[in-house]
Write a structure and sequence with these properties.
This protein is mainly beta. It folds into two domains: 342 residues, monomeric porin ompg (Porin); 152 residues, 60s Ribosomal Protein L30, Chain: A. 15% of the residues lie in helices and 40% in strands. The protein contains seven helices and 23 strands. A 14-stranded antiparallel beta barrel has the order 1-2-3-4-5-8-9-10-12-13-14-15-16-17. A four-stranded mixed β-sheet has the order 20-23-21-22. Strand 15 and strand 16 form a beta hairpin. Helix 5 packs across helix 6. The two termini are 30 Å apart.
Length: 524
C-alpha cells in the first residue's frame, strides 16, 4: 500500500504555530454577535461574497448558486439567494492561472412579503502572484498570493405600509392609523459598494485548498443606505479573516482533517467560528466517463461564539458540487430575540480542465536521454546503456566491478521504492526510516554503488518542471545517505519526470505511486 502521506512535517507544525497565534489574538477580541448573520456559513463555496481574492483559486469556469434561509422567532425569515459566474484567466504560454473575473447577483429579503429587500450585482477581478513558502510545505504544490477587488451596485427597498413605529403604540395597544412620526424620503435607496481582499493559498491537483489565509473588507466606501430624512446612515465596513490547513491525512490519502476558522467584524460586533472539515476521498477510475467520478465527500462541524453549532455535508465531483449546511441557534442577541436556525444549499457546476498541463508524454517522440536527467558525473569505471522500447525510456548503468556478496535479505532494502509528499522533495518519516536501513547496508558493503532514480506524477505545468522535481527527489535521497557516512562517489542520481509511471496518472492512487524514488544497484 502506498504510504505517501504519513505524519506532520516540521514545517507544517511551524506554519500551524504561526496562524494559530493569529487565531488566538482574534479569539481574545471576539465578542458575542447581536445581529443578523448575513454571512454564508459555507464561506468556501461563496467566494464572491467572502473574499474577492478567492475567485482566482480554480482553473475551471464555475456557476455557483447559493441559497440561505434564516428563521427568526417571529415567524419571519431572512432569505438570501445568490448566483455567481467565475471565469479563470489562464496564461497558456506559461501554463498558469494568473487571475479570474466574476459576476454575481444578490437578493437579500426580510420576510415573505419583502418588508425590506436588497438586490444588486457585483463584479470582481483577482490577480494571482506565484508564491513559494520558504518552509516548503510537503503537501502543497500550486501556491499563490491573490489580490482581489470588487465593485457592486445595489438597490435597497422597503415596504413603508408594513412599517410600524413606537408612536403607533399607546400603552399596550397598537393603533395602525396613528401617525408614524417618521419621514421617509423614498421607499428605496441606490448605493454602490467597494470590496477588496487578499488570500494566500495552496492546493492540490483536484483544486482542493490544502492551506489558506485570507483577509477581506466589504463596503470600504461606507455607502449611505438611509431611508429617513435624517443624517446619513452609513453602511459599516465588514472585515473577514479566514484560515485553514490540512492537519492530518491517512496513510492511503483517503481521509483528511482540515481545521479552519472564520472571524467577522462589523463595527463593535464580532463573530468567531472555529471548526473542521473531515474529508473522504473516493475513486471510481473504472468508469471515468460516468456521472460518478473520482471525488470526495466532506463533513464540517463548527462552533460559533454566538452559542451556535454549524454542520455541513458536501459531495464534490470534478464538474459539480452539492453541499448543504444547518446553523443551530446561530443568532442570539437583542436585535433578534429568538431564532431557530438557518439552512443553506449550494450547487456549483464546473466545466473546463482542472489542470493546466503539458502534452502527455509520447514514447515515440522526444525520448529523454540520460544526459537530460543525470546531473552527476559518471565514474570512469562505468558505462551507460540506453534501452528504448515502445513504452518508455530506461537508463541502465552497468558496473564493471559488481558486488556479488550482498545477501538477499540485505538486498531487499533496495527493492522498495520511497514515496514522497505531493510535489515535494522533502523526506517524510517513512522514507527516512528506509534510508537509514539503506545507509547501514552501504556502510557495511563498501563496494556497493547505486543509482537513485527520481520520478513524479504528471502534475507540473511543463515537462521541465517534472524533470526538475524528480531530480530534486533523487538528490534529497543522496544528500541524506551522504550525511550518514556513505561516500558521495558511490551514489549517482537521475530524474525521469513522469516518463516512467508505475501506475496510471488518472487517479489519485496512481499519482501517489508515481511520486517515488527507486534504487538500482550498479551490477551486471
Amino acid at each position: 500500500m502506498t504510504r505517501n502521506i504519513l505524519f506532520l512535517n516540521k514545517c507544517v507544525l511551524k506554519l500551524w504555530a504561526y496562524w494559530l497565534g493569529i487565531l488566538g489574538l482574534v479569539f481574545c477580541i471576539s465578542t458575542p454577535v447581536e445581529a443578523q448573520d448575513v454571512n454564508f456559513s459555507q464561506f468556501q463555496l461563496a467566494p464572491t461574497f467572502t473574499n474577492p481574492a478567492m475567485i482566482a483559486t480554480s482553473n475551471q469556469y464555475q456557476f455557483i448558486l447559493n441559497y440561505r434561509s434564516q428563521f427568526v422567532g417571529s415567524g419571519e425569515t431572512f432569505t438570501t439567494p445568490m448566483a455567481s459566474f467565475i471565469a479563470p484567466l489562464i496564461n497558456r504560454k506559461e501554463h498558469r492561472r494568473f487571475g479570474a473575473l466574476s459576476a454575481s447577483v444578490f437578493d437579500d429579503r426580510v420576510g415573505e412579503k419583502g418588508l425590506m429587500r436588497t438586490i444588486g450585482t457585483e463584479v470582481a477581478f483577482a490577480f494571482n502572484i506565484p508564491f513559494e513558502l520558504p518552509l516548503g510545505l510537503p503537501i502543497l504544490y500550486d501556491s499563490y498570493l491573490s489580490f482581489g477587488v470588487q465593485a457592486g451596485l445595489f438597490r435597497r427597498s422597503i415596504d413603508i405600509n408594513a412599517i410600524t413605529t413606537g408612536s403607533q403604540w399607546v400603552g399596550n395597544i397598537f393603533d395602525p392609523n396613528a401617525p408614524r412620526n417618521e419621514i421617509f424620503v423614498n421607499d428605496f435607496v441606490d448605493f454602490r459598494t467597494l470590496n477588496a481582499g487578499f488570500l494566500w493559498y495552496s492546493q492540490d491537483t483536484t483544486e482542493v485548498m490544502r492551506a489558506y489565509v485570507g483577509f477581506s473588507a466589504r463596503n470600504i466606501n461606507q455607502p449611505n443606505v438611509g431611508f429617513l430624512n435624517v443624517s446619513a446612515d452609513r453602511m459599516p465596513i465588514a472585515y473577514t479573516f479566514i484560515a485553514g490547513m490540512d492537519a492530518w491525512t491517512s496513510l492511503d490519502g483517503r481521509f483528511s482533517i482540515q481545521p479552519n476558522v472564520r472571524w467577522v467584524n462589523l463595527q463593535a460586533v464580532n463573530q468567531f467560528n472555529l471548526g473542521s472539515f473531515f474529508r473522504y476521498h473516493f475513486g471510481t477510475s473504472a468508469s471515468p466517463k460516468g456521472f460518478l467520478k473520482e471525488g470526495s465527500m466532506s463533513f464540517g462541524v463548527w462552533y460559533s461564539t454566538t452559542n451556535g453549532i454549524i454542520g455541513s455535508f458536501g459531495f464534490h465531483q470534478p464538474n459539480y458540487t452539492i453541499s448543504m449546511s444547518y446553523d443551530l441557534a446561530s443568532i442570539r442577541g437583542t436585535r433578534v430575540p429568538t431564532q431557530s436556525g438557518a439552512v443553506e444549499l449550494t450547487v456549483a457546476v464546473k466545466f473546463g480542465k482542472r489542470r493546466i498541463g503539458f502534452k502527455k508524454y509520447n514514447p515515440y517522440e522526444d525520448i529523454p536521454t540520460y544526459e537530460d536527467f543525470v546531473s552527476d558525473t559518471i565514474p570512469d569505471d562505468q558505462q551507460v546503456v540506453q534501452v528504448v522500447d515502445t513504452v518508455k525510456a530506461t537508463t541502465v548503468v552497468v558496473s564493471e566491478n559488481p558486488n556479488n556478496e550482498l545477501p538477499p535479505k540485505d538486498l531487499s532494502v533496495f527493492e522498495k521504492p520511497l514515496f514522497f509528499y505531493y510535489a515535494s522533495d522533502l523526506l517524510n518519516i517513512d522514507t527516512i526510516e528506509k534510508l537509514e536501513q539503506i545507509a547501514v547496508q552501504m556502510n557495511n558493503y563498501k563496494d556497493i554503488k547505486i543509482e537513485v532514480q527520481g520520478h513524479a506524477c504528471d502534475i507540473a505545468r511543463t515537462k521541465e518542471e517534472n524533470n526538475h522535481l524528480s531530480l530534486k527527489r533523487a538528490k534529497a535521497v543522496k544528500d541524506f545517505l551522504v550525511s550518514k557516512g556513505v561516500e558521495d562517489n558511490r551514489i549517482m542520481t537521475a530524474g525521469f519526470g513522469d516518463s516512467q509511471p508505475a501506475a496510471a496518472n488518472n487517479t489519485e492512487e496512481g499519482r501517489e505511486m508515481n511520486r517515488r524514488v527507486e534504487f538500482k544497484l550498479l551490477a551486471n
